[in-house]
Amino acid sequence: MPRVTKSRSLKTSSARCRNASRTEAGRIPLQLRFARQVNAILGEGAPPDNYINPRELSGIEQRLLKEIFIRIGNLQTRLSFDFTGQP
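Above: the chain sequence. Below: its structure as tokens.
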């Protein structure tokens, strides 16, 4: 049985945290969109749409979305560099 070193264990834990945060980052906008669609159907009697008015979000939701969009932009830049060699 291979011995797990502290360094290897920390790297694995760090990778798991990054993956979990990526999963959460993707889940938050989907939850907001779903809540908007439910509210349109049940609350307004209107057809569902994907528009989320940022002014109707709480301060925490606004900050989370800003952080998520920053991370998405960073990921897109990194992928662009990895595949094309240009940012």
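The radius of gyration is 19 Å.
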